[in-house]
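This part of the workshop introduces the protein records we will be handling. The structure tokens are whole numbers drawn from a learned vocabulary of backbone shapes. The record below serves as our worked example for the rest of this section.

===
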Amino acid sequence: MSGVFYSYHFEEKLDRNQTYIYCANHSSNLDIMVFCIMAHGKYHFMGKDELLQNPILKIFFSTIDIAVNRESKISAFRAFKKAGDNLELGMSLVIFPEGKIDDHYPPRLGEFKNGPFRLAIDKNIPLVPVSIANVWQLSWDDGRKYGSKPGICDIYIHKPIDTAGLSADDADVLKDKVYKLIESKLVLI
């Protein structure tokens, strides 16, 4: 009813029975819907604990998703421990490795945190880079500052990256590879 539609472009068909770590850029609250429509099976999000302050979002977020305080190393450790346990139970993880929506408009792809890449290697889970190309043009952040409009959001799902045989020393190389893949499909002004 909002006039926002999602167009998914897969480099390779994803295995519905495989557990994945989905890594995507983050520029809009609409990014969450990208995965609610795309992801199959059991999955959960990792997100900022401020979401628990909103009474509506708290209902959904506190059930299966993982809250993390970005300023606390202890909170981050607990969040990634829980995510690792859930991965072992077959639940895929959706994470925005930038850790936040960029304050700059138009948004720029921010520096990635290390956690999802170390987790993928540690748990031997394939990583799926996802480029959410132009959602910010329809609704940046929550849409209050620059408004929102109808349109088609282009989502590029890159080929899964196998982490078998990688060690903790490879985490930075993996992070850089995912960054470059995601960046390659972003719409820039």
